[in-house]
Amino acid sequence: MTLVTDVSLRKILDSRGNPTVEADVHTERSGFGRAAAPSGASTGEYEAVERPPGEAIAAAREHAVPRLVGNAYAGDQREIDAILRGADGTDDFSEIGANSAVAISMAAAKAASDVLGAPLFQHLGGTFRGENFPIPLGNVVGGGEHAADATDIQEFLSAPVGAPSVSEAVFANAAVHAAVADLLEERGHPSGKGDEGAWAPSIDDEAAFEIVAEAVELVSDDVGFEIGFGLDVAAAEMYDADSETYEYESEGISRDTDEQIEYIADLVREYDLVYVEDPLDENDYDAFAELTEEVGDRTLVCGDDLFVTNTERLTEGIDRGAANSILVKPNQIGTLTEAFDAIELATENGYDAVVSHRSGETEDTTIAHLAVATDAPFIKTGAVGGERTAKLNELIRIADDAT
Ligand SMILES: C=C(OP(=O)(O)O)C(=O)O
Ligand SMILES: [Mg+2]
Question: Which family does it belong to (predicted)?
Answer without folding.
Answer: Belongs to the enolase family.
